[in-house]
């Protein structure tokens, strides 16, 4: 079941990215190549990018793709580090709660008024419902992380460590350069 959910989540993100890219490409070709265009392309591209970003935020929490400044927290012993992470997750949940409330109010008003998209005859509240959906998904990720912190399965956020990744890339480049210089030296000796 978990693999199915992961596949659906990743597939949806891919679909949004490919859809946005193709739509922008076709619009550019039509506009600059044929002096025409798709009148609804800009609005749909903006909506797709909003869905991509807000859906991707929760996915980024899941896979540890977000960058964080945790140099001080890493210096703490295990228990205070976990407490700091719990406080951070609770603050993130509060933030999600604010956006969930605001998103619900906004979408409710859009639904009540009955506003449609500017370029398409489609209800705006459905098209912008990612404001609520995205933060529900994000809150679920934070609740899952909070649970893992409480039972001791995690010490903190799984953050991307760009410095470590950069050093790893530098080591790979250096190893590649050494291999090239060795093969060049061997060719000269022959």
Task: Set out the fold topology.
Layout: H1 2-34, H2 41-63, H3 71-75, H4 78-113, H5 124-127, H6 130-150, H7 162-189
Helix pairs in contact: 1-2, 2-6, 4-6
Explain this structure to me?
The chain is mainly α and 190 residues long. It has one domain (2-164). The chain is 79% helix and 0% strand. The protein has seven helices and no strands. The longest helix is centred in the middle third of the chain and has 36 residues, at 78-113. The chain is flat. The chain starts with a helix and ends with a helix.
Question: What is the gist of this entry?
Answer:
With 190 residues, the protein is mostly helical.
Keywords:
single chain, 190 residues, mainly alpha, flat
Task: Find the count of extended strands (DSSP E, 2+ residues).
Answer: 0
Q: Low-confidence runs (pLDDT<50, min 5 residues)?
A: none
Give the N-to-C terminal Cα separation: 59 Å
Number of domains: 1
């Amino acid at each position: 079941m978990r693999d199915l959910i992961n596949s659906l989540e990743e597939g949806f993100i891919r679909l949004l990215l490919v859809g946005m890219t193709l739509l922008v490409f076709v619009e550019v070709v039509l506009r600059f190549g044929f002096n025409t265009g798709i009148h609804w392309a800009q609005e749909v591209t903006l909506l797709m990018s909003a869905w991509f970003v807000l859906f991707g935020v929760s996915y980024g929490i899941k896979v540890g793709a977000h960058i964080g400044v945790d140099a001080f927290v890493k210096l703490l012993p295990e228990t205070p580090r976990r407490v700091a992470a719990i406080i951070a997750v609770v603050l993130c949940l509060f933030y999600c709660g604010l956006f969930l409330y605001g998103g619900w109010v906004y979408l409710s008003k859009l639904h009540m008024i009955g506003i449609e998209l500017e370029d398409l005859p489609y209800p705006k509240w459905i098209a912008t419902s990612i404001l609520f959906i995205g933060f529900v998904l994000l809150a679920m990720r934070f609740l899952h992380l909070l649970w893992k912190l409480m039972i001791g399965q995690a010490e903190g956020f799984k953050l991307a460590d760009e410095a470590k990744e950069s050093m790893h890339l530098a080591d790979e480049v250096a190893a590649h350069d050494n291999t090239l210089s060795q093969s060049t030296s061997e060719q000269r000796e022959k």
